[in-house]
Automatic annotation (TrEMBL):
InterPro entries: Ester_Hydrolysis_Enzymes, SGNH_hydro, SGNH_hydro_sf
UniProt-recorded name of the protein: Lysophospholipase
Any GO molecular function: phosphatidylcholine lysophospholipase activity
Positions of the SGNH hydrolase-type esterase domain: 68-223
Top-rank taxon: Bacteria
Pfam family, one: Lipase_GDSL_2
Length: 230
């Protein structure tokens, strides 16, 4: 009996180890996200997304100077505090992709902000969105704004710290997506701000001084971000 118990424990350990290796080799967090979305594909939008977009849509109409649009990196930012003399709205939604931003961009564009700042793409990379699909979505996001009313600015995607976040995103993918962002900005008349280079450490990763988890920014990181807008 004791022998079979030992064998059972060893087999379980081997299975757990194999599962961990498979997840690691497939990009860690990216693999888990892809599997989860495949199992829950009948739910088009998360509860958080639906809640946030509902709040956005019901917000009273008022003149807007700056609108920040994007995923969790935007969602976490306290941008209004950096521009106390202007009306600033934050339209960041955690876990958003370019497709999800495009789905709700009209709400922002219809407010006719003087300036719109967009950062989106890291979740597209993590979900394996193809470059041409991302490019089409990004172009349509920019085109949603009336250029005679709103100056659109596209931010580059930030680096990640692999020591903290693992291999969910490859540096080469970030570079490819950032080249698309630069190209779309140039061809559409939007402004382009390269944030990526300002956050690199000596190893070409997101500098630890600007992050807690290797992906999102801390307060010091947002200071660097906003400094590049001056």
């Amino acid at each position: 009996m004791k022998k079979w118990l030992v064998v059972s424990v060893l087999l379980n350990m081997l299975l757990i180890g194999a599962a961990g290796w498979i997840i690691y080799m497939n990009g860690g967090e990216r693999f888990i996200k892809a599997q989860w979305r495949a199992m829950t594909s009948d739910k088009s939008f998360s509860e958080y997304y639906l809640t946030k977009t509902s709040v956005f849509e019901e917000s009273p109409a008022a003149p807007v100077d700056k609108a920040f649009v994007g995923d969790s990196l935007t969602d976490y930012g306290s941008f209004g505090e950096y521009f106390p003399d202007e009306r600033v709205i934050n339209r960041g939604v955690y876990d958003d992709t370019s497709k999800l931003v495009l789905n709700r961009i009209d709400e922002v564009a219809e407010r006719e902000p003087k300036e719109a700042y967009v950062m989106v793409g890291i979740n597209d990379i993590m979900e394996g969105v193809k470059l041409d699909t991302y490019e089409k979505n990004l172009r349509r996001i920019v085109e949603a704004f009336d250029p005679s009313v709103t100056q659109v600015t596209l931010f580059s995607i930030l680096p990640v710290n692999h020591d903290l976040v693992g291999n969910a995103v490859r540096d080469e993918e970030i570079s490819e997506f950032n080249e698309i962002i630069r190209q779309v900005a140039e061809e559409s008349g939007a402004e382009f701000i390269d944030l990526h280079s300002h956050f690199l450490d000596g190893k070409g990763q997101l500098d630890r001084q600007y992050t807690v988890d290797g992906l999102h920014l801390n307060g010091k990181g947002y200071d660097v971000w906003l400094e590049q807008m001056k």
